[in-house]
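The methods section describes the discrete structure representation at length, but only in general terms. Since the whole study asks how a given chain folds, the encoding of that fold should be made plain. An entry of this sort, consisting of the sequence and the corresponding backbone structure tokens, reads as follows:

. . .
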Amino acid sequence: MTAGFRPGVRLGVDPGDARIGVARSDPSGLIATPVETVRRGAGDLARLRAIAEEEGAVEVVVGLPRSLSGGEGPAAAKARDFARDLAAVLAEAVQPVPVRLCDERLSTVTAESVMRGQGKKGQKRRAVVDQAAAVVILQNALDTERATGVAPGEPVSGAVSVQGSGETDEQRHGDDASKGVNQHGDQPN
């Protein structure tokens, strides 16, 4: 293990409008593997917290979709909002878990390419592409930290509006989810 590399299981998260891909690393941070796809909407943050607790995660890495030029558009703003909400939920866990945003340029494209190469098509591919994208995001973060000895990306603080508000995950997400709209006002795919 490289000096400066922080040991422990990390989770990789690829938040989409309809689904959230989740991956995990081994405790030594060598390899990322898929965990599950969480449906976006009511209960999604609670499920991610449960996964973090089940896996004994020391950190969660959320993909930040930047443009090829490095700029940020509406998708990046959604990812930042999601990461802040997740950070707030994980800060309240028995063992608080920090959240970092890491550049995820082309992670879904890479994951789609791998899935096509494995012969997965249509619905079958869509069911696992989010997990595969989370693997790509997490593996990149692990490799970057191992190569540089520096934690990748940027730390995320929980949103003030969520912390201490007394709202449950279902209250924040539930109404919109019941209308087929996620917490960012988008129709799921």
The chain has one domain: 10-156. DSSP finds five helices and six strands in the chain. The longest strand covers residues 32-39. Residues 21 and 37 are 5 Å apart (CA to CA).
